[in-house]
């Protein structure tokens, strides 16, 4: 049943995207795996994927990749998984406009632009699944993650709006909300902090940053609730194969816990827990 289905997945160099590409291909999907570095594209091709260079922070890269995809598919695609993303850690008062723009170009603007490029195909064919990789931080903010929190909150607002606008078209808009998942996220976050925040920090958050950097440098799972990328792939499989997919897939225990706590607790009580959890 899935042999003729096709999907474009962004951010396939490692972690969630890489596992998802393998998981769906194993189920008979035609997977177009993308990455923003040519060496990662070459590696994906060596693994047998139809891989394409795609940096969602670059409009020209999106246009070029979509043109290539149009050529090899005839302008048909059953699913799009907007997975590419990263985090710029740092206190809000240490985040410059440039740092925020850098964060939003990939996590928000790129996903929107790529989705809008693919949507006409799905409208013509009368069906499709558009899946966004969000986060527990897409609805529950934690300290020292302001740029990432804001980007995922924005992504969820965009996805919710798109879902309403596409009602009755046969195109489903779906959010996956992971919590801690084994990936290169912490390594990448440490690099982003060193680039965007460390050189300009005001010093008032020195203790917070010391704790944060210790956490980012810690090897192994980030918490005892950390799951493998297989957990996210399982949600993605249901999202793109189920006749009636969920609107949101909350993948880990922390995601499910904070979803309930946000609805049950007074905001100030929730703030206490979020400050401790985000410590």
From TrEMBL:
Signal peptide: none annotated. Pfam families: adh_short. One of its GO terms (molecular function) is oxidoreductase activity. Keywords: Oxidoreductase. InterPro entries: NAD(P)-bd_dom_sf, Sc_DH/Rdtase_CS, SDR_fam. Belongs to the short-chain dehydrogenases/reductases (SDR) family. This is SDR family NAD(P)-dependent oxidoreductase. It comes from Chitinilyticum piscinae. The lineage of its organism: Bacteria, Pseudomonadati, Pseudomonadota, Betaproteobacteria, Neisseriales.
